[in-house]
C-alpha cells in the first residue's frame, strides 16, 4: 500500500500503479521503488513538508468549560428556571433546595467527567499504534503518525490501516 499526499487532487485511486509509484518517487523505476520504498532521508523530508499523520483532534476542554457544560442539559436549565421562579414567588427555601441539588449534580458530573477524560488521555499516551513500512529496502516498524505520503505500507490480516492507501500488491493467505 502507498500513503497518498494531501496535495493530490484525491484521484489517486484512478491512477495506474506504475503512474502512482512514479509520482511518489521520480528517481527510481516503479518496480525498483516498490522493492526499496523511501529512503529515511526522503521520509524525513516528507514528514517536515506534510507534517505528522494525525487526525485533527477535538479542541481541548479545560476545567471551566467542562464545568459549564454540566449546566447545559435541558433538565438542568428547567430546574434553574424553576428555582428562579420559586424565588420570585417567595418560596426561598424551595429555590435554595432546587439550586443546591442542581449545583451538587453539576459538581458530581464535572468530577466524574474530568476523571474519565484524564483516564482516556493517559491511556492514549500509553497506546501507540505502529505500522510496518518499507524504508531503505527493509521493513521498519514506525508509529502511525510518522507514515508519510509515498510510504509503502506492509499489511497483513487484522492490521489497522494508518492512512489513505492504494493496494498495489496482495497475496491470498
Structure description:
The protein is 48% helix and 11% strand. The protein is mostly helical and 173 residues long. The chain has 2 domains: 2-57 and 128-166, Calcium-transporting ATPase, cytoplasmic transduction domain A; 63-126. Strand 2 and strand 3 form a beta hairpin. The longest helix is centred in the middle third of the chain and has 35 residues, at 92-126. The two termini are 17 Å apart.
Strand order of the largest sheet: 3-2-4
- The CATH architecture assignment of the largest domain turns out to be Distorted Sandwich
One letter per element, helices H and strands E, the order comes to: EHHHHHHEEEE
Helical proportion, percent range: 40-55%
Full CATH superfamily name of the largest domain = Calcium-transporting ATPase, cytoplasmic transduction domain A
CATH fold name of the largest domain? Calcium-transporting ATPase, cytoplasmic transduction domain A
Q: Which runs of at least 5 residues are low in confidence (pLDDT < 50)? A: none
What's the Cα radius of gyration?
Answer: 27 Å
Structural class: mainly alpha
Query: How many strand units?
Result: 5
- Individual helix count: 6
> Can you tell me the number of structural domains?
2
Task: Give short descriptive properties of this protein.
173 residues; mainly alpha; Calcium-transporting ATPase, cytoplasmic transduction domain A; 2 domains; 3-stranded antiparallel sheet
Task: Describe the secondary structure blueprint for this structure.
Elements: E1 2-3, H1 17-24, H2 30-36, H3 40-50, H4 63-69, H5 74-88, H6 92-126, E2 130-135, E3 138-143, E4 152-154, E5 165-166
Amino acid at each position: 500500500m502507498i500513503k497518498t499526499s494531501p496535495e493530490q487532487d484525491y484521484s489517486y485511486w484512478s491512477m495506474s500503479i506504475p503512474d502512482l509509484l512514479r509520482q511518489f518517487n521520480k528517481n527510481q523505476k516503479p518496480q525498483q521503488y516498490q522493492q526499496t520504498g523511501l529512503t529515511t532521508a526522503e521520509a524525513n523530508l516528507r514528514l517536515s513538508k506534510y507534517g505528522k499523520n494525525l487526525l485533527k483532534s477535538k479542541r481541548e476542554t479545560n476545567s471551566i468549560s467542562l464545568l459549564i457544560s454540566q449546566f447545559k442539559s435541558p433538565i438542568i436549565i428547567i430546574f434553574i428556571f424553576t428555582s428562579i421562579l420559586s424565588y420570585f414567588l417567595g418560596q426561598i427555601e424551595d429555590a435554595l433546595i432546587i439550586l443546591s441539588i442542581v449545583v451538587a449534580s453539576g459538581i458530581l458530573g464535572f468530577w466524574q467527567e474530568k476523571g474519565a477524560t484524564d483516564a482516556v488521555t493517559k491511556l492514549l499516551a500509553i497506546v501507540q499504534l505502529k505500522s510496518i513500512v518499507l524504508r531503505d529496502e527493509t521493513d521498519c516498524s514506525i508509529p502511525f503518525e510518522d507514515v508519510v505520503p509515498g510510504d509503502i505500507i506492509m499489511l497483513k490480516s487484522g492490521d489497522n490501516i494508518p492512512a489513505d492507501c492504494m493496494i498495489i500488491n496482495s497475496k491470498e493467505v
